[in-house]
Design a protein that fits this description.
Mean pLDDT: 89
Distance between the termini: 37 Å
Strand content: under 5%
Radius of gyration: 17 Å
Number of helices: 10
Shape: globular
Order of helices and strands: HHHHHHHHHH
Number of strands: 0
Number of domains: 1
Structural class: mainly alpha
Low-confidence stretches: 208-213
Largest sheet: none
Length: about 210
């Protein structure tokens, strides 16, 4: 039994890598908002294309770092490195700003700009704490889209299983301590809930159940 659990925990952060969870979560949110607006298919594909294009901006800090320093990418990404954490967080910050601007410029709706404000906000403590405290970025980044989706619509609550399992995963693999893993969850949850509360004029109520997605 422990062998099966060990194998599952070993593969879990790769199958549910936080960047993948974030990307899929944002795509689900884009699709959800598009269905509410009853737009045609071309509108959806323009938004998906915009998301993919802007998402490439997240790579700028990491590519620039390796280009300038000449560091070995494989060695640099092995284990826990506050520099890599900070580069990823800065990249997400840049992509979040780009997405926010794109959606505002084309007036594509409110959900994505709201989500980008939350994404930008959770990267700030991640960047600030990384050099001093090895807070779990896996937990923070995977929680952001899962909790935001759950707040937007109750049908997305199952997504929360991903960051909840991630909390235990980081501890099981000795990647983080209980404080670092749970701390990341609490910090991110507080920011997400607080900003969503402000965005919804003091309400945390999600939308009614919907069968359209």
């Amino acid at each position: 039994m422990m062998s099966l659990l060990s194998q599952a925990m070993t593969y879990y952060p790769y199958v549910f890598h936080p960047i993948t969870v974030l990307g899929v979560g944002i795509l689900v949110l884009i699709h959800h908002e598009w269905t509410r607006q009853d737009g045609d298919q071309s509108v959806l594909w323009r938004r998906v294309g915009g998301f993919l294009g802007v998402g490439l901006l997240a790579l700028i800090p990491t590519v620039a770092y390796f280009g300038i320093t000449g560091a070995n990418p494989i060695q640099s990404t092995m284990g826990n490195s506050w520099r890599m954490d900070a580069l990823v967080a800065v990249g997400l910050f840049i992509a979040g700003v780009g997405m926010w601007y794109l959606w505002r410029h084309f007036d594509w709706g409110q959900l994505i700009p709201g989500a980008m404000v939350v994404l930008i906000a959770v990267t700030i403590p991640y960047i600030a704490l990384s050099p001093f405290w090895n807070v779990s970025g896996h937990v923070i980044i995977s929680l952001m889209p899962a909790l935001y989706l759950a707040l937007v619509d109750r049908k997305f609550w199952p997504f929360l299983a991903i960051p909840i399992v991630m909390v235990y995963n980081r501890i099981f693999l000795d990647a983080h301590t209980w404080a670092q893993s749970i701390g990341g969850f609490v910090i991110a949850a507080a920011i997400i809930l607080g900003l969503y509360w402000l965005q919804t004029d003091g309400s945390l109520r999600s939308e009614p159940e919907s069968t359209t997605l």
